[in-house]
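TASK: fixed-backbone design
INPUT:
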């Protein structure tokens, strides 16, 4: 029955990574203190995302080489069966486990839902989420990214790591024995510890750029700054205003090395404008400022 409740149990392996100076070993008391704070932060984040979720973290073993703590994050979730019905893997919960593990070690002011999406899917390119799962996960991440959520536990994590000068970077990975795609270097720890409280933040807007591989969903084939639709692996479909004037002019002159249509692959540089609202950064505007691929036909100059 659609209104039937079910209890789901999902195990997700996550490795907490401590990068060490060459030939050095870590202070295991420091590592233990950091691990305790990390687990406490994970539980607090999970509760804020959804109070019906219970999270159990089991530390399986560790590797003294570069120092990995291999853990298993187990989610117990009671939800309506109609969401993810027929799935035995519950991909949203696996992705959520990776997202929360990553959020603990990142500076809240520096991360957005988009950047967490990117980091979570980078070492799991095959993750497949339904539109409903993507919407739920994006909402989960936004809740977890509120700067005051689990703030004391996250500070405790970095305060612990800061004590051992042999630890040069920290990160999390769902791929065993593989250096995480996203790591926080030692020089950033102090910046995190000095992060102001939400009511002290004076900056209410910000602008940042990234280059993404995307799939074109719907173009606007005219020389005008209009919103195009794109899709990126592991992310919900999104719109961005096409502001690459050279590319727009090339469309008008039929100078693009591709017949623009739905489904083509593109490499674009996007600019994001965010506003700080209700304790979290919200993206208000996305713009394509440069189209890297497909390339343009260049007119050959006469000899």
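OUTPUT:
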């Amino acid at each position: 029955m659609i209104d039937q409740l079910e209890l789901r149990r999902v195990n997700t392996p996550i490795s907490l990574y401590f990068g060490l100076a060459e030939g050095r070993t870590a202070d295991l008391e420091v590592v233990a203190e950091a691990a305790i704070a990390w687990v406490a932060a994970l539980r607090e984040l999970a509760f804020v995302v959804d109070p019906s979720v219970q999270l159990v973290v089991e530390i399986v073993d560790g590797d003294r080489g570069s120092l990995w703590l291999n853990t298993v994050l187990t989610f117990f979730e009671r939800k309506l069966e109609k969401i993810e019905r027929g799935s035995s893997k519950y991909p949203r919960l696996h992705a959520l486990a990776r997202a929360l593990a990553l959020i603990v070690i990142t500076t809240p002011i520096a991360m957005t839902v988009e950047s967490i999406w990117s980091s979570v899917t980078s070492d799991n390119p095959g993750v497949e989420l339904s539109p409903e799962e993507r919407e739920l996960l994006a909402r989960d991440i936004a809740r977890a990214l509120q700067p005051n959520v689990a703030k004391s536990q996250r500070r405790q994590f970095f305060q612990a790591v800061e004590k051992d000068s042999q630890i040069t970077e920290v990160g999390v990975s769902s791929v065993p024995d593989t250096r995480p795609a996203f790591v926080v270097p030692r020089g950033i720890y102090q910046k995190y510890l000095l992060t102001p409280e939400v009511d002290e933040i004076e900056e209410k807007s910000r602008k940042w750029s990234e280059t993404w591989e995307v799939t074109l969903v719907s173009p606007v084939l005219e020389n005008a700054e209009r919103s195009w639709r794109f899709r990126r692996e592991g992310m919900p479909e999104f719109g961005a205003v096409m502001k690459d004037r050279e590319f727009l002019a090339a469309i008008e002159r039929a100078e693009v090395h591709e017949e623009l249509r739905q489904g083509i692959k593109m490499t674009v540089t996007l600019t994001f404008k965010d506003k700080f609202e209700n304790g979290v950064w919200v993206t208000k505007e996305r713009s394509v400022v440069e189209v890297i691929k497909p390339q343009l036909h260049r007119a050959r100059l006469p000899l």
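COMMENT: The chain has a mean pLDDT of 77.
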